[in-house]
Every structure is written in C-alpha cells, then in structure tokens.
Amino acid sequence: MTDRNQENKSNALLLGVMGDPIGHSMSPVMHNIALEAAGLPGMYVPLHVKPEHLAEAVTGAKALGFAGFNVTIPHKVEIMKLLDELDESAISCGAVNTVVIRDGRMKGYNTDGIGYVRSLREEAGELTGRQVTVLGAGGAARGIIYALLKEKVAGITIVNRTVDKAVQLIKELNTSDVVMQTATYEELSQYLPQTDILINTTSIGMHPNVDETPVAAEQIPEGIIVSDLIYNPMETRLLREARTRGCRTVGGLGMFIYQGAYAYEYWTGQDAPVSLMHSAVLEALN
Ligand code: ATR
C-alpha cells in the first residue's frame, strides 16, 4: 500500500474511538500496539462522546488534527450527516464505523462487513460460488451481506423472524450476480442441506443467554462452515454444537480485529499487524 499520510510524517498520528459508553472498548489496546510495532509515533484514545455532543466532537477532532477515528454505538448512523463524503461501503451499509480525515475533509467508511468477510475467508478459503445462509436482517447482517456480494458467492438465503425486513434488505442490496432469497426459521431444514456456510448475525446465544441457539444441533449439516458474530462468549452454543457435527467454526472476534485492521490501513497506508492485534485483544480479554 502507498503511504497515504506522507504529508503528516513529522506529526504524531492522533486516532481514537467515539462511543457511549466507551470504557470497555478493546480498540485502543489493538491500535496502540499496532502503531508501536510499526514505529509510527501516535496514539489511539477512547473518546466518551454523548449523542448530544457528537457534532461538536467531530468538529473538535478535525480542529485538533486527528488523522481519523472510529465510531461505535450509538453514533454509527448519526455521524453520516456530519461528514464531507461517504464511501460506497458506508452508503450500502447505512452506517459508518471509520472516519478518515485528510486535507481537512472527513470521509466515512464501513469496515465491519469487509472485516468480517476477511476473517471468514481466513478459515473458509475462497467464498466465490458458495451458498450462504444468513440468520438475521439487522445492521450487522446488512454489512456482511454487502461484503459477501463483493465476493461473488453463489447465493444468499436470509432467514429472519420478521420476514419483511429480509425482503426489504434484498430489495436494497439487490444485484443480478447473486441469487438472494428469504426463508423463515421453520423452513431452515429445507434450505440448510444446500448451505455451505451458515452465519448467525442475531443476538441469540449472546451473554447472558448462553444456553440459546438459533438452530437445533441436528439441523446443522455435517461438515459445513458455521460462523457466529457473537464474541461474548467466544464459543457460542451454536459453534459448540456445530463442532460436534464436524463443522469448521468461525467466531466473532475476527470481525472485530479485521474491521480495525482495515481502519488502520486507511489511516496509515500500511498493512496492519493482524496477528499482533489479535493476541493483544485476547490478552486484554482474559
Ligand atoms: P444488529 O446491528 O446487531 O444486527 P439489529 O439491527 O437490532 O442489531 O438486528 C438484530 C437482528 O437479530 C434482527 O434480525 C432480529 O430479528 P427481527 O428483525 O425479527 O427483530 C434478530 N433477533 C434478535 N433477537 C432475536 C430472537 N430472539 N429471535 C429471532 N431473531 C432475533
């Protein structure tokens, strides 16, 4: 990659994450270790920003000379109207998690979906031509489906409790290259045998409801790839049961690491030290 911050070489790179709450964010640990390893002078700080102060905070970051920042809950949608430009990823996902400030202009990106897909590819290999079933049709599903479409998967079945939301999502992200359809949870047994990759984007199985699972163990086809975006707990009941069915599993932590890796690459113009970031987060979580 080219060094996109050549003009700022003499300055320390100011980065951070705006959210409310922000105390438990793992992003500072992950980015500071990456900056240090690359020998880049700079710092990534947690920024506690209440919704009513978001506009002031964004203006302030620009005035202070920040190179960019992440935004997390609850600012991912609101921030969109405060920026000068939106990348296609942000427009398609309807949300921003990464802002790059260059020459006084602020551009918003969404690296969640592409980050997830990069972590999935690491485990699953090429995604082209694969049949994917996505559980859920909310914000997380939107970002992931956007990124899966770019990988030219063969087909995507969206399974959602509220079917209308899945229908709407297909309308908005529609492409002629990939066959997309909706299904209900009751119809899962019909669709799962043709599935190569099953992805849970819902909160079913998330702490503290760790005994819940969106798919009964006996319904999971043997030997497929099963992925869960949840990373608390790191191994959900879905993933545990999938492994007993001989499936390869992909947890949610990789999505967090790789969304950060893409953001780091946008800000610094350099490849992110992904395995170092991963071990720093694991250590901080334990
Ligand atoms: P996120 O940004 O994490 O995707 P969201 O936009 O609130 O959050 O979406 C949550 C998704 O999980 C939705 O698809 C939701 O289904 P509905 O659209 O029917 O609400 C799904 N979800 C959450 N809890 C669920 C449950 N108990 N059973 C089935 N689906 C559930």
Automatic annotation (TrEMBL):
Listed Pfam families: SDH_C, Shikimate_DH, Shikimate_dh_N
GO biological process, one term: aromatic amino acid family biosynthetic process
Binding locations of NADP(+): 88, 136-140, 160-165, 229, 252
Domain called Quinate/shikimate 5-dehydrogenase/glutamyl-tRNA reductase: residue spans: 122-203
Residue ranges constituting the SDH C-terminal domain according to the UniProt record: 252-282
Domain Shikimate dehydrogenase substrate binding N-terminal intervals: 17-99
Domain of life: Bacteria
Pathway: Metabolic intermediate biosynthesis; chorismate biosynthesis; chorismate from D-erythrose 4-phosphate and phosphoenolpyruvate: step 4/7; Aromatic compound metabolism; 3,4-dihydroxybenzoate biosynthesis; 3-dehydroquinate from D-quinate (NAD(+) route)
Entry binding sites for shikimate: 25-27, 72, 97, 112, 231, 259
Catalytic reaction annotation: shikimate + NADP(+) = 3-dehydroshikimate + NADPH + H(+); L-quinate + NAD(+) = 3-dehydroquinate + NADH + H(+); shikimate + NAD(+) = 3-dehydroshikimate + NADH + H(+)
Enzyme active site: 76 (proton acceptor)
Uppermost EC category: oxidoreductase
EC number assigned by the record: 1.1.1.25
Keywords: Amino-acid biosynthesis, Aromatic amino acid biosynthesis, NADP, Oxidoreductase
Subunit comment: Homodimer.
UniProt record similarity statement: Belongs to the shikimate dehydrogenase family.
Name under which the protein is recorded: Shikimate dehydrogenase (NADP(+))
Organism: Paenibacillus bovis
Lineage summary: Bacteria, Bacillati, Bacillota, Bacilli, Bacillales
